[in-house]
Amino acid sequence: MVSSKGRLDIALVHYPVYNKNRQEIASAVTNLDLHDLARAARTYGVGTVYIVTPIVDQQELVAEIMGHWQDGYGATYNQDRKEALTVVKVCSDLAQARELAGPLTVLATGAKEREGSLAWPDVRERLREGESFLILFGTAWGLTREVFAECEGALAPISGGDTGYNHLSVRSAVAISLDRLLGQHN
Amino acid sequence: MVSSKGRLDIALVHYPVYNKNRQEIASAVTNLDLHDLARAARTYGVGTVYIVTPIVDQQELVAEIMGHWQDGYGATYNQDRKEALTVVKVCSDLAQARELAGPLTVLATGAKEREGSLAWPDVRERLREGESFLILFGTAWGLTREVFAECEGALAPISGGDTGYNHLSVRSAVAISLDRLLGQHN
């Protein structure tokens, strides 16, 4: 949280995203994404992690996982996971996530260079000064062009330098993003 | 790699690590750790990702996973994963990882504050100036005290600020570490 005055929320988007062949799909929710994102979010003081999927079965799966760790056996087995999952909310679409998040700046993320994308230190500074953000992360092969068009902006792609390779898992991308925006780098 | 002259290798250690009750155990290798670490390593220009486990069955599992993605069906299905996994090597213990890595500085990582731990910007600078490092990451509840004692030093714990919570997955911790040491933060 450092001294950020703004709130940072994130959304893990399972629809609409691209598959390998650039077709629009709804990807599957995974247990590990939920845990990794919740733990990273709680570590960095993120407000809410929205899990976005229109598929009712998948929404129920998320509720089941959360129930296991919050009220079931998992709650006594591992308190840290119980606590982390309190930041998670399920949404059927991005409009609902926006509504729940309230007025804030919505930014998309992706691995490709885009004109006019925002530099990480600038968004970090805006957060620190009090602006609140909802940052969207796409599963599978990433957020569709329409999602980018609907956002107030996009963050610069995460770069590891001139390695000729840029294929982070969404779990890695979220962790790095939170560290860039909220981490104490000492 | 930005303009780092030193080489950065990492090791994912499955033994010796602590379990929840601070007993020394060998943890299980997971498919997703392998993929996430390999993809992050390749994105940031890491030299080698050592997967350390003394359990022969587990070593074979790693070889099988790598075979699937490098020569089997996975190799044609997803070239990016094939390429990422070229950085992975299996080792039976840390001594073997050190031997394969050659002369460099070995650092441990963990979530707890430790006296004399190294600041991230300092290690980034040493890398940039030409020093090579092997950085150890513990699975389960972290590297044992003996591992810390055998290393040349330890990195400061990753901090997300005063959130009262610090329980990142090892996948998140590795991704953030690589970004702190090798990322281009613009």
Describe the structure.
Two copies of one chain form a homodimer. The first copy, chain A, has helices at residues 31-44, 56-70, 73-77, 79-85, 94-101, 120-128, 145-150, 170-182; strands spanning 8-13, 17-18, 24-25, 49-52, 88-91, 105-108, 133-138, 153-154. The longest helix of chain A has 15 residues, at 56-70. By secondary structure, chain A is of the alpha/beta class. In chain A, β6, α6 (120-128) and β7 form a beta-alpha-beta unit. Chain A starts with 7 loop residues before the first strand and ends with a helix. In chain A, the strands form two sheets. The first copy, chain A, has a six-stranded parallel beta sheet with strand order 5-4-1-7-6-8, with helices on both faces. A two-stranded antiparallel sheet of chain A has the order 2-3. The model of chain A has no long low-confidence stretch (mean pLDDT 94). Chain A is globular, with a radius of gyration of 16 Å. Helices cover 41% and strands 16% of the residues of chain A. Chain A has eight helices and eight strands. The A-B interface holds A 1-2, 20, 32, 35-36, 39-40, 42-45, 78, 80, 83-84, 119-121, 156, 158-163, 165-169, 171-176, 178-180, 182-186 and B 1-2, 20, 32, 35-36, 39-40, 42-45, 78, 80, 83-84, 119-121, 156, 158-163, 165-169, 171-176, 178-180, 182-186.
